[in-house]
Amino acid sequence: NSPISGEMVIQNEEWYGIPALSQLVIMAAETSLGDPKLGGSLARHYNFGCLRYHGGDTAWGELASDRVWVAGKDWYAFATPQIGMVAFGRYLKTGANGHYLPILTQTHPDWGSFAAVYYGRYVAGFNSYVDRLHTLEHRFRSMAAEQGVSL
């Protein structure tokens, strides 16, 4: 049910250097790969990485069409799935002063270091989130291997 296409994921890999596997793992953990029902309100607003609203003066914020109030917080909303994916790629490349890109481009991303900033080390559920990222990476790698695809 997701409006995210493989082409959008590959585009972010080509434009921003974010490996497809890293993108898929994060989106699966955040919005059930953009499924509007399973991924909830943020997926329906094309915010596939659950990017918190911090204004329009960032490379990803300038793409926002609006913001949406969910779970007591403001989040970015994007007009189309394509724009949402571009914003997600821009954020992963440049957000947190470039913290994510070197982590996500490793052969085996350090999900703990990634999550410490993306999710918040002291946020309730941190360890479960890191475990979920590891589990999702393993599942995607296993599925790829079963299909003869190299990641």
Give me the Rg, rounded. Answer: 14 Å
Read across the widest sheet, the strand sequence of neighbours is 1-2
How far apart the termini lie comes to 24 Å
Largest sheet: 2 strands, antiparallel
- For the residues shown, what is the average pLDDT? 97
Protein topology:
Elements: H1 6-16, H2 20-31, H3 40-44, E1 66-70, E2 73-77, H4 81-98, H5 100-104, H6 111-120, H7 126-146
Antiparallel strand pairs: 1-2
Helix pairs in contact: 1-4, 2-7, 6-7
Describe, in plain words, how this protein is organized in 3D:
With 151 residues, the chain is mainly α. The protein contains seven helices and two strands; from the N terminus they run αααββαααα. It has helices at residues 6-16, 20-31, 40-44, 81-98, 100-104, 111-120, 126-146; strands at 66-70, 73-77. The chain has a two-stranded antiparallel sheet with strand order 1-2. The two termini are 24 Å apart.
Describe the structure using short key phrases.
151 residues; mainly alpha; two-stranded antiparallel ribbon
